[in-house]
Amino acid sequence: MEDLKSSLSRVKLGGNKLLVNVVLFAKENGNLKPSAPLGGRDKGTGEGHTRSQGLFPKGHGSHHVKKGVSFLDILTNKSHSEGDEYVVVLDPSIFSLSSITGKAVVGRILGFNELRFLNSSLKSVGFGDASIQYVGGLTVLISFENGVDANRFLEAKDIWKQLFSSLSPWIGQSLPFERIAWINILGVPPHLMSSKVFDEIGSRYGKVIQPSQFIETVGDLIIGRLGILLDSGNKINGVLSLSWQDKKYKVWVVEENDQWIPAFLDVDEESLAASSELGDYVETQPKSVSGIVRDLSVVRNPKSWVILQLWKLRSLRKSMSPLMMCMLPCRERKKSAALGPRFVGSNLLIVWARILLLILLLVIAVLGWGRWTQVPLWVSILVSLIVSSPISLY
Hints:
It is extended, with a radius of gyration of 38 Å. By secondary structure, the protein is an alpha+beta fold. It has helices spanning about 1-10, 70-75, 110-115, 120-125, 145-155, 155-160, 195-200, 270, 300-320, 320-325, 330-340, 345-370, 375-394, and strands at about 10-15, 15, 105-110, 130-135, 140-145, 165-170, 180-185, 205-210, 225-230, 235-245, 245-255, 260, 290, 290-295. It starts with a helix and ends with a helix. About 30% of the residues lie in helices and about 20% in strands. Strands 8-9-7-11-10 form a five-stranded antiparallel β-sheet, with helices on one face. Strands 4-5-3-6 form a four-stranded antiparallel β-sheet. A three-stranded mixed β-sheet has the order 12-14-13, with no helix packed on it. Residues about 25-65, about 265-310, about 315-345 and about 390-394 have low confidence and may be disordered. It folds into four domains: about 1-80, no CATH class; about 100-170, Alpha-Beta Plaits (2-Layer Sandwich); about 180-255; about 310-394, no CATH class.
């Protein structure tokens, strides 16, 4: 027994040692007598021992031991257990979204692509007036103007079966928590990088709904990115090992901070495809507000943006003669090129005013030369140009 106690006393957990006490009041140990403290010291004062008030002392690397928490949970910083959860008692009369009860349906989408384009899909089948609310994961709440339209949509099973795996009337029922998370996978060696490997890693954390788009000949060889479906609100930040042949590789899986939401929540998909004056320029810049990012597949086309700016500058030059362009101040020339032809009209008055001012100064110079013949004509003209240059060239 003493050898066992001595061996266990040398076991370390983090920065602490185990405190070993022999059970004195158990029936099977009733004939045992308390042994003398090791080394002749008082119990609890020797090296590696603590006072009986807690298994671990307060301080760095220690936790209070709570009911339902194992040593593994303590070592991995998982000290929270179900018994530690706080309970908030709500008023039983609370019932949100009661106004749409009877005229709304709740459904689970078949997949990620169906979720992204749900709004346009409903319009194509004659239910474009429906209002869509995103519940999370692959679940949406669709409300109609009245209960008749809601029932008509429920009865059109051949239609909604192409979009939903299940659909039911909304009566305030509880729904399971789900969310879509985007994860980055780092550490996969180049010779093992493939969509299959990334998807297999992602499946360890949730259901893969947007597989990795990794292409061997395109992109970097650092990160793999994919979307997964989760039933937990905890952020993913994990480490695992890949075993290949006789080698092992450490891989890190990190969830992106931004929360993904479908694009139809704040932008109509048809407006994203609306053409501009060029016919090929689409303003589809993703918007980030309070850490929420729209569908990441909607991005700006840099090439079209450059073409639009060149078109504006070309139209400006066609609308103005070279003399007008030269007479504009430098700052206004830049502004005109940026704003396009609409800005030109507001500057015509300024252009002609400067032309008249220059003519007036030249006339004064010529008349002055005729009155004061001692002043050469070229000097008078030069003075006029110098006087007018700050006005037309600043």
